[in-house]
Design brief:
Order of helices and strands: HEEHHHEEEEEEEEEEEH
Number of strands: 13
CATH superfamily of the largest domain: Rieske [2Fe-2S] iron-sulphur domain
CATH class of the largest domain: Mainly Beta
Number of domains: 3
CATH topology of the largest domain: Rieske Iron-sulfur Protein
Distance between the termini: 40 Å
Strand content: 25-35%
Helix content: 10-25%
Strand order of the largest sheet: 4-5-6-11
């Protein structure tokens, strides 16, 4: 495999310079004399950011659905690994120091939005968001989670996952810090009880049921379906797709801790 002869797309053309592929062929023949068959050739485009760091960000027009990592330059392996961590945080709705470091704002870049976005036209869209791994949620023990601004109490009972609004409908207590008995969760503030599968009130003083959320497991990830506000515009394909981040070694974790 042979590569090189890079050129800048905005550089003025040089009539004396050969086609990049022709230059590579001459280089090959000068180093390895003889007959050679080129079975495949290709070219690709790269771009460099203003400060050399990649851009990793959530698309402002499709929050929760489109995430972008680009501009790795000549450090694709290193920066790609860093981008994977940042994307993992962004998918979970976390705004970390690393996300700020790699965001567009650091160089003053602005992503052009569609006319619909500029006009403020939005729709409500349901999407699945990763909130935990199967190792995080212990059977018969409430788990506190958050997905795109939704505070959620997550439960694993008899091998099945359930999710309801974490904010008690009576006085706003945190249900994920309550007492779980069977399929009933008791609010730690005033003792109201709710069914974790249906959200129905099972005991006073609450009168209104809890909002429930569909839950699914994909691989080792536990995902909850929530409703978010999206700009009205062209549909994005594969709305159920999600970024999955694999656990990496301690060396990379130590390197990234500098940004948190």
């Amino acid at each position: 495999m042979l590569g090189g002869c890079d050129t800048f797309v905005d550089a003025p053309s040089d009539p004396k310079r050969r086609d990049p592929l022709a230059e590579l062929e001459l280089f090959l023949k000068s180093r390895l004399p003889g007959d050679h068959e080129i079975v495949y050739s290709w070219s690709g485009g790269l771009f460099e950011t203003k400060d050399g760091l990649p851009y990793v960000f959530e698309h402002p027009q499709y929050p929760g659905r489109v995430f972008i990592a680009c501009g790795f330059g000549g450090n694709g392996l290193v920066m790609g690994k860093a981008a994977a961590y940042v994307l993992g945080d962004l998918v979970q709705g976390k705004k970390t120091r690393a996300a700020l470091l790699f965001g567009l704002e650091r160089t003053g870049e602005v992503l052009s939005l569609s006319e619909a976005k500029n006009n403020g036209e939005t729709i409500r869209q349901k999407i699945f968001v990763r909130v935990a791994t199967i190792a995080d949620v212990i059977d018969a023990k409430p788990y506190c989670a958050e997905a795109r601004g939704h505070k959620i109490a997550l439960f694993l009972i008899g091998g099945k996952y359930y999710a309801i609004s974490n904010t008690c409908s009576h006085a706003g207590g945190s249900l994920c810090r309550g007492t779980l008995t069977g399929d009933s969760i008791q609010c730690p503030v005033h003792g109201a009880k709710f069914n974790v599968a249906t959200g129905a009130v099972m005991g006073p003083p609450a009168l209104r049921p809890q909002l429930t959320y569909p839950v699914r497991v994909r691989g080792r990830d536990v995902e909850v379906e929530v409703e978010v506000e999206m700009p009205k515009g062209p549909a994005v394909q594969d709305q159920q797709s999600h970024t999955r981040i694999q656990t990496a070694g301690s060396t990379w974790r130590s390197w990234l801790r500098r940004f948190f």
